[in-house]
Amino acid sequence: MSDPGKDPTAKRLQHLVDAGYPDARPVRGAVEGAVYLVGQGRVAKVWEHRHGSELLRMQRFYADSAGHLPFDAPRILAVQDIAGVPVTVEREPIGEPLAVKVRTDDPEVLPEAVDCLVRVLRALADAHDVDEVKRLPVLDEKRPLWEGHTAFGTALADLIDRRVGRCSGLLSARVADFAGKRARLVERLRSLPATTPEAVVHGDVFPETVLVDEDLKPVALVDYGFLSTGGDPRFDAAVAAAIFPTSVEHAAEITRRLTERFADEFGYETDDLLLYRAAYAMATCDAFAPGGGDDHFAWCTSVLDDPAVCEVLAR
Length: 315
Prior knowledge:
Elements lengths: L7 H11 L6 E6 L2 E7 L2 E6 L4 H14 L10 E7 L2 E7 L4 E2 L13 H15 L26 H13 L3 H7 L3 H14 L7 E3 L8 E3 L5 E4 L7 E3 L1 H11 L7 H16 L3 H15 L10 H10 L2 H8 L1
Antiparallel strand pairs: 1-2, 2-3, 3-5, 4-5, 6-8, 7-10, 8-9
């Protein structure tokens, strides 16, 4: 048996048991923490970088979104402090992750899976009740993304300026003309017109966060929080196309096809999607390893050196 004093999972489980959840058991990881089944159709989510006040705001956002999205969002039943760590007790989500239903390492993406993503992106783009979600910080920041801003592009530009300074040396070593790309990207973001109307931005739509039924219809979208905010729906489309594939071998082709589909479906300019993809890569490059250097960092550098992204940033 693991020593609860040394094993983080065992330690968390013991805390949950002590807090009155004797049947707690781990089920999966999430971007911002870990999820545990605790019985009676409930899960407990342990949050690594959130405060209770933020989770209460997220609880209100989820409650508001129930009337604006055609699929389920998480339902937070309680926000608790367990051994000094914020924990949400939520209704166990229905459906299965799209990832277990389709292969994401095949260049021929199942059409039903793409249709599913289109439904999710369209629903988010049509959800305009953004007051609560705009007040949330993103990544591991303490301040809301929108603090001091009136436009999504400028808020995103300032986020990049704050984040990339922490690993600019490594980025400069790995990305061709990083300083020039950073300057041009930030300038382009600051020049974007304000989004009207603003939409809910999930920030991490991919086959693990989309839950589906047997017919691959979306029944829930989970794991809000990583980059969830209000703003331009093109950001979600850009990110979803880029992070859908798991195979390095076919990633470029899958992303190209999804980008074309999303651009055609929603009337988006491909250049705008590439711009937001570069923004996501710069903003999140050290999200999982402070200072960079992990697999996600390597993926981000590959995005920033993608010829199509380079062409857009060079204009």
